[in-house]
Design a protein that fits this description.
With 268 residues, this protein is α/β, with parallel strands linked by helices. It is built from 12 helices and 9 strands. It starts with 8 loop residues before the first helix and ends with a helix.
Length: 268
């Protein structure tokens, strides 16, 4: 039996969507179901166990069902949602949180492998790459492997590259098995690495990093009673697909002049 612990605001809200301080809206973009949950008050935040802010959830069912062009459609919708939260200018630092050696936890590092890193090109060859937004990517590893909190590494790098925003990508936990690798959540609240599995670490937030922090994540595990976590049988393939989808969306959001086909060609 599952415990019900979740990182997803849409699950935490449940039947409380009409409660004071909690906003809820559902819509469809390019055939992709989108749910918005707004936690507007401190009381609502305590009730849901989530920081105040805006949470957007995309249903990846069309991708799972292999509908026509669903991968690109979902990436475009996610890119549009992300673009609304990003400052228009400044270097963007993409931080891929998680442990590359553990398949359910390698979403963040795998996403970084597909990010169009342009900061050095814009600086060194402005005539050729001046139209691109400067982007840097970082996969800081985990405390058990490096001895350093991910948030400290991100804070140090963010200060050195003078970034204007951070996009943090992390694996999440869900209460429902049906949501594993089938939902992507976007929020403007930052992220606390490891919180979904009860392994709380220093957070990546605007307060800790000094710049807006946008969190992107996909649930890859659900907790069962006894402290065990369950994950899909084909988790390796599903994490790879989700990492590529998030990376494509991030690239489109940061480089709005490119098409999905452009991004995929450049990423090669």
């Amino acid at each position: 039996m599952l415990t019900g612990r979740t990182d997803l605001a849409v699950e935490s809200a449940g039947t409380l969507t009409q409660a004071e301080g909690i906003g809820h809206r559902e819509r469809t973009e390019e055939g992709v179901p989108v749910t918005e949950v707004e936690i507007a008050t401190a009381q609502a935040a305590r009730r849901l166990g989530k920081p105040p802010g805006r949470y957007v959830t995309l249903d990846l069912g069309p991708v799972r069902r292999r509908e026509t062009a669903a991968f690109h459609r979902s990436a475009r919708v996610l890119a549009g949602e992300l673009r609304r939260l990003l400052p228009e200018e400044g270097t963007a630092l993409v931080v891929g949180l998680g442990n590359r050696a553990m398949t359910p936890d390698r979403l963040g590092p795998a996403c970084c492998d597909h990010i169009l890193v342009t900061r050095h090109l814009v600086a060194q060859m402005p005539e050729q790459f001046g139209a691109f937004r400067p982007v840097a990517a970082l996969a800081p590893g985990v405390l058990g492997s490096t001895g350093v909190e991910s948030a400290l590494v991100a804070q140090a790098v963010a200060g050195r590259v003078d970034c204007g925003c951070v996009i943090a990508v992390d694996a999440l936990a869900a209460a429902s098995l049906e949501r594993l690798c089938a939902t992507v959540q976007l929020s403007d609240t930052g992220v606390a690495p490891g919180s979904g599995v009860g392994n709380h670490r220093a957070g990546l937030t605007q307060e800790t990093l000094g710049v807006p922090v946008i969190a992107l994540g996909v649930p890859t595990v659900a907790e069962a009673h006894g402290g065990c976590f369950v994950t899909p049988r084909d988790i390796d393939a599903q994490v790879d697909q989700c990492a590529k989808l998030i990376a494509l969306a991030v690239n489109l959001a940061l480089q709005p002049g490119l098409t999905p086909e452009d991004v995929e060609a450049l990423a090669q």
